[in-house]
Specification:
CATH class of chain B: Mainly Beta
Shape of chain B: elongated
Strand content of chain B: over 45%
Order of helices and strands of chain B: HEEEEEEEEEE
Number of helices of chain A: 2
Helix content of chain B: 10-25%
Strand content of chain A: 35-45%
Oligomer: heterodimer
CATH class of chain A: Mainly Beta
Structural class of chain B: mainly beta
Largest interface: A-B, 71 and 40 residues
CATH topology of chain A: Immunoglobulin-like
CATH architecture of chain A: Sandwich
Distance between the termini of chain A: 50 Å
Shape of chain A: elongated
Order of helices and strands of chain A: HEEEEEEEEEHE
Number of helices of chain B: 1
Number of strands of chain A: 10
Number of domains of chain A: 1
CATH architecture of chain B: Sandwich
């Protein structure tokens, strides 16, 4: 009886592992399709200043966020990793057709995930795209990249249930 | 065997429900890198294009040879995002008939150097202005001696940001 239970248990265990493997793989595939950043990596350069003013900020709208509705109401958050950050970088969702764009977010190294697009209603539907508007700035007092190096942010957008 | 089967089913349900609930919280993530580069920016400007000073000798006591005129109508503005910088001043007039002095008044950043007599050699005008946005009033003082007679000097003053 004990041998039979062990044998049966092993077979069941194997089935569980296989089932869980398929489930996990399927979940990852579904995850990958639900949100993506389009346009690749971006570079912003601050190069000029007017007399009596801080350097003019640089804006970049060459990337976008592609996402879709979920079974539950959802939102998208943003966070960044930028060790030894020196300059200022802000991001704003523009052209949002599904959900509500949050106010512009100032990206700071190690920041908690911060609302970026909220109130994405549940339901079916195809993908929608929102433009990512990045704005970089620095004061004269913050220095320059030649002396201090560039800031390189890894900006992460996450689609979560709201 | 029935007990084992039930036990394993519970494990399966537990694993699947746990995984499902965690997936329900986070649907997906996406990321990219964004690089911010700040160029070396050095900006210097003068608020007034041309200044005229006339030494009339009015108010000079009888018997005194030296006469002066002072002008504080212009400002120098700068924006520098490099460290350890100073501003020098010089004139293009190699042999002036009269003396022209320059002093920085009320600088918002850095330290004013001592008043200089302008020459074709660059001289320190403002010190310690690295990584700052600031301004100061330009005080020009023209000096003439009665014995020098009359005439006109025309200077082009150049301000230069240099490494300190």
């Amino acid at each position: 009886m004990n041998n039979l239970a062990v044998k049966y248990g092993n077979r069941m265990g194997a089935r569980i592992l296989v089932l869980f493997g398929f489930f996990a793989l399927g979940s990852l595939c579904v995850q990958a399709q639900q949100l993506s950043v389009q346009g690749g990596n971006q570079v912003l350069s601050v190069t000029t200043a007017l007399a009596g003013q801080e350097p003019a900020s640089a804006t970049n709208t060459n990337s976008s966020l592609r996402y879709r509705r979920q079974a539950l109401n959802a939102k998208i958050t943003v966070a960044t990793s930028c060790p030894a950050q020196k300059f200022t970088l802000r991001t704003l969702a523009t052209g949002v057709t599904v959900g509500t764009a949050a106010p512009e977010v100032t990206l700071s190294n190690g920041m908690p995930a911060t609302d970026f697009i909220t109130n994405i209603p549940s339901g079916a539907g195809g993908f929608v795209t929102s433009t990512l508007q990045y704005t970089a700035s620095a004061t004269f007092a913050q220095g320059n990249s030649a002396e201090q190096g560039n800031d390189v942010h890894t900006v992460t957008y996450t689609l979560v249930a709201q | 065997m029935a007990v084992m089967k039930k036990y394993l089913l519970h494990i399966l349900l537990f694993v699947l429900s746990g995984a499902s609930s965690s997936m329900a919280q986070t649907y997906a993530t996406g990321d990219h890198t964004v690089t911010v580069q700040i160029s070396t920016i050095t900006m210097v400007s003068v608020s007034v294009g041309a200044i005229s000073m006339t030494i009339t000798g009015a108010g000079v006591p009888a018997g005194q040879d030296q006469m002066t005129a002072t002008n504080q109508s212009s400002q120098l503005q700068w924006g520098i995002n490099s460290s350890s910088r100073k501003i020098t001043a010089q004139t293009n007039l190699a042999a002036p008939q009269f003396t022209l002095k320059l002093l920085a008044l009320n600088p918002t950043q850095g330290t004013a150097a001592a008043e200089v007599i302008l020459s074709t050699t660059a001289q320190d005008f403002m010190l310690n202005i690295g990584r700052s946005l600031g301004n100061c009033t330009l005080q020009y003082t023209g000096v003439a001696l009665a014995s020098q007679g009359t005439g006109t000097d025309s200077h082009t003053i150049t301000f230069t940001v240099q490494t300190q």
